[in-house]
Design goal:
Elements lengths: L14 E5 L3 H16 L5 E6 L9 E2 L2 E4 L1 H7 L3 E5 L4 H13 L3 E2 L2 E2 L10 E3 L4 E2 L4 E2 L3 E3 L4 E2 L4 E2 L4 E2 L4 E2 L4 E2 L4 E2 L4 E2 L4 E2 L4 E2 L4 E2 L4 E2 L8 E3 L4 E4 L1
Parallel strand pairs: 1-2, 1-5, 2-4, 5-6, 7-9, 8-11, 9-12, 10-13, 11-14, 12-15, 13-16, 14-17, 15-18, 16-19, 17-20, 18-21, 19-22, 21-23
Antiparallel strand pairs: 3-4, 23-24
């Protein structure tokens, strides 16, 4: 999948809507508040987008829950970010948002440590607190890097990949589009995780994993499609 170009928000209209209304959406709302504490051009969080059309009479932690009809009122003067852990569900949500003409925000926790000269981050990607990205890394569009992960040199994370909390990717790891890495999984160097594959929590990947499979264990072995 071709990487989407990173979009820079219009500085006069930093309004933001979070797609999703679950636990991770609440964590992304916290990420937004952390960004707002250190950036003068902060985000104005309008609400959570519940695609089941719940409506704004509801609220989560004081933040309104918006249905699709309400979200349409804010387009195109607002930005959207998808707070959805499952890569396939996230992709479908993004496609819906694109069909409505939404623009996408890229959220990077201010304490993230990375070489800004050689690390590229795609449109709509979310990078949570505690991440360390070293050098010459390419991160695609709408990627999710959850809490406390490390990514080694010359690695590639393709579009819609999900990296769960506490993962450690050694140098030259390639995570293909829509792959899902479970909490605490680890790769050695020169590993490729195939497109749409799932790596189980705590797995140690010592050889490349093909597309469309599930791999678990230490060392990780393919268990099934």
């Amino acid at each position: 999948m071709e990487l989407l170009k990173m979009q820079q928000p219009d500085l006069a209209t930093r309004k933001l809507i979070i797609m999703g209304a679950g636990g991770f959406a609440r964590e992304v709302a916290w990420l937004v508040s952390e960004i707002n504490q250190v950036e003068t051009n902060s985000w104005n969080l309008l609400g959570f987008w519940d695609r089941d059309d719940a409506g704004s009479e509801q609220a989560i932690n004081g933040i309104p829950v918006l249905g699709t009809k309400e979200v349409k009122q804010y387009i195109p003067n607002s930005y959207v970010v998808a707070a959805i852990g499952d890569p396939n569900t996230r992709m479908r949500a993004i496609r819906q948002a694109q069909s409505l003409g939404c623009r996408f925000a890229t959220l990077v926790h201010p304490a993230t440590r990375y070489d800004q000269r050689t690390v590229s981050i795609g449109c709509g990607t979310v990078i949570c607190a505690g991440n360390i990205l070293t050098v010459d890394i390419r991160i695609g569009a709408h990627v999710l890097l959850n809490l406390d992960c490390t990514v080694g040199h010359d690695s590639i994370l393709e579009d819609f990949a999900t990296v769960s909390p506490g993962c450690h990717l050694s140098g030259r790891t390639i995570v293909r589009e829509r792959a899902y890495l479970g909490t605490g999984s680890v790769t050695i160097e020169n590993i490729e995780i195939g497109a749409r594959s799932t790596i189980g929590a705590g797995a140690v990947v010592v050889r490349s994993i093909p597309s469309d499979v599930i791999a678990t264990g230490v060392p990780a072995r393919v268990k099934g499609a």
